[in-house]
Specification:
The complex is a heterodimer of chains A (356) and B (205).
Chain A lengths: L1 H31 L10 E7 L2 E6 L5 E8 L4 E2 L12 H7 L2 E7 L12 H20 L4 E6 L2 H11 L5 E7 L9 H6 L7 H8 L4 H11 L3 H11 L4 H14 L2 E2 L3 H13 L2 H4 L3 E2 L2 E2 L9 E6 L7 H5 L1 H4 L5 E6 L10 H19 L1
Parallel strand pairs in A: 3-5, 3-6, 6-7, 7-11, 11-12
Antiparallel strand pairs in A: 1-2, 2-5, 4-8, 9-10
Helix pairs in contact in A: 3-4, 6-10
Chain B lengths: L5 H27 L5 H4 L10 H22 L6 H24 L2 H35 L5 H33 L27
Helix pairs in contact in B: 1-3, 1-4
């Protein structure tokens, strides 16, 4: 009887050791494994200008009104939106029958240091919108802005009230920069001389961008590594981790003048909500946005805290507005299992009702 | 009798191991530094520092923890690893929140600004020298310099922009002719750079 009890006591311990060993072997394998493929949803390039590309994804297009997705410029590559089959926002939206377009701003070099927010909003986005309408053959569109893509695209919509935008979605896009958390604090003009930074560096190197984001969550790497260790024996987890990790380690520099204007006008002077933002010689008035607006924010978003994102609803002139706050951070709205269960279906549902 | 709580036990043991480890470090360092007057008494070199003293208590207490868990539950719970993970997650979360609070202060932002200032003070002259030397080297080889390549690339970008401007105009005309609803045209072409304040010049005399 005693022997059986001892055996029963040893058994779980042995299986735990076996798990630990298999994790260790898996970790060794991972160091040799080739990079996973990301951004695989079939697409066509329908417009290109300098480094920027406009992609139109293949789908059944049972919902004909095109959806234009505008992500952040700089920081990271847009592959996060189409990470892997089964965990891709792009794939999900295409699967729902949307005619989905994504603007890839591209990776800018030294020759693009003169690119400004002004140029992106008043010159590039109008052309992109036009190409969306032309290639889809429709006379209206919906716009989704993610992260920095939200203040850029909403400024574009506000500057062009005649633009046939049927619905607008802000996903984790900062609007009121007085509530923008740590970045707003660090970029305070009393401590951060953006002119000196840009004049010295020209462009903001990818390493600096990485440092800024790492500093935002110093324990992130430790907890990510720990989670990986605990889940090393789960092939699906490891696969997702590797795909996410590939994206997360690919930082993108900021063109100098763009960064200057972005930090000064948005972070330091909060001009978008103060109604003092002027782009292309015209004042941006969010009150001019009258289409239905849906705002989605992450409760633990350190990059664009929920109150800073939600603020859009206080400033638009729309009557049909909705706000959704979900647990998780900046990325968990756009990638991962939680996003596919809690966030994407809500966006699809909301858009579907407005574009029908 | 209170029910066994392996997570609490783990935390207690972890705390104790840290305290013991600190003690081990201190005693190890104490051995390497002779006490005052000791040199006069003995000329023998100090014994080598045994750094394993730091880990020994942690390892032995790890074993103790497993044993304790085994005694409490009659067997080592397969959930124990999960509970330990929960403890670590919680610990990281606490640290993360504490750091976020510290980094959200004005003092931190000020320190960060000072650090950036110092970095730029070093970077600016270094970058200038490196650029000048690289340019001189490639020029000596009869190759275009970096700045020339960048300037050429900028001109290509500008040219592309002008062509697009023309396309916009053509589209506008076409749209006026066909009277179809369309997206707004881009602003007319302008210089791409943000207007900068004029360079400061020092008046002499």
């Amino acid at each position: 009887m005693e022997t059986i009890r001892e055996a029963a006591a040893i058994n779980p311990l042995a299986s735990e050791w076996a798990r630990t060993l298999s994790r260790a072997f898996r970790a060794l394998e991972l160091t040799q494994a080739p990079d996973p493929q990301i951004g695989l949803t079939p697409k066509d390039v329908v417009y290109r200008r300098n480094k920027a590309r406009l992609y139109r994804y293949h789908s059944s297009r049972t919902r004909p009104v095109p959806v234009l997705f505008v992500p952040n410029l700089g920081i990271s590559r847009p592959t996060i939106f189409d990470l892997q089959p089964g965990s891709s926002f792009v794939e999900y939206m295409c699967g729902q029958g949307y005619d989905f377009y994504l603007l890839d701003w591209g990776v800018y070099g030294e020759e693009d240091n003169g690119l400004t927010v002004d140029e992106c909003v008043t010159r590039l986005l109008p052309r992109v919108a036009r190409k969306v309408l032309e290639t889809s053959g429709q006379d209206s569109l919906a716009v989704i802005g993610y992260c920095m893509g939200a203040p850029l695209s909403i400024s574009f919509v506000a500057l062009n009230p005649e633009l046939p935008v049927r619905a607008y979605v802000n996903m984790a896009g900062p609007i009121d920069f007085s509530k923008a958390g740590l970045f707003a604090r660090w970029l305070d003009k009393r401590f951060y001389d953006v002119d000196r930074v840009v004049d010295t560096m020209g462009a903001i190197p990818a390493e600096w961008v990485k440092l800024g984001f790492k500093l935002l969550r110093p324990t992130m790497d430790v907890s990510t590594a720990l989670n990986l260790w605990w889940n090393l024996d789960k092939p699906r987890y490891v696969e997702s981790y590797r795909a996410l990790s590939r994206w997360a380690n690919e930082y993108v520099p900021f063109p100098g003048e763009f960064f200057r204007q972005w930090v000064r006008d948005f972070y330091q002077e909060n001009r978008l909500v103060r109604k003092t933002l002027t782009l292309g010689g015209r004042r941006v008035d969010l009150g001019q946005v009258r289409c239905p607006v849906f705002v989605v924010a992450g409760l633990e978003d350190y990059i664009a805290p929920a109150p800073c994102v939600q603020a859009l609803l206080d400033h638009v002139g729309s009557r049909d507005t909705q706000y959704l706050e979900l647990p998780g951070g900046h990325i968990s709205l756009i990638a991962g299992r939680s996003a596919s269960v809690h966030c994407w279906p809500r966006i699809s549902e909301w858009l579907g009702a407005r574009l029908a | 009798m209170t029910p066994p709580n392996p997570v609490q036990d783990a935390f207690d043991l972890w705390k104790k191991s840290l305290e013991d480890g600190t003690q081990a470090w201190l005693s190890a360092l104490g051995q390497s530094v002779p006490a005052p007057g000791a040199e006069a008494r003995s000329t023998a070199p100090p014994p080598p520092v045994d750094f394993s003293q730091f880990w020994r208590p942690i390892l032995s207490q790890g074993m103790e923890l497993w044993q304790k868990a085994a005694q409490a539950q009659g067997a080592v719970s397969p959930d124990f690893a999960q509970q330990w993970k929960g403890f670590l997650d919680q610990w990281i979360d606490v640290w993360s929140k504490a750091l976020a609070q510290a980094m959200g202060t004005e003092a931190f932002a000020q320190a960060l600004g000072r650090y950036l200032d110092q970095t730029l003070s070093v970077q600016a002259p270094v970058r200038k020298v490196v650029e000048q030397q690289t340019d001189a080297a490639v020029r000596a080889l009869g190759l275009p310099s970096r700045s020339q390549v960048v300037s050429l690339a900028s001109q290509v970008v500008g040219l592309e922009e002008r062509i697009e401007g023309l396309e916009d105009r053509l589209d506008e005309i076409r749209s006026l002719l066909t009277e179809r609803p369309r997206a707004p045209s881009a602003e007319p072409a302008r210089p791409t750079k943000t207007p900068r304040p004029p360079a400061r010049t020092e008046k002499k005399g």
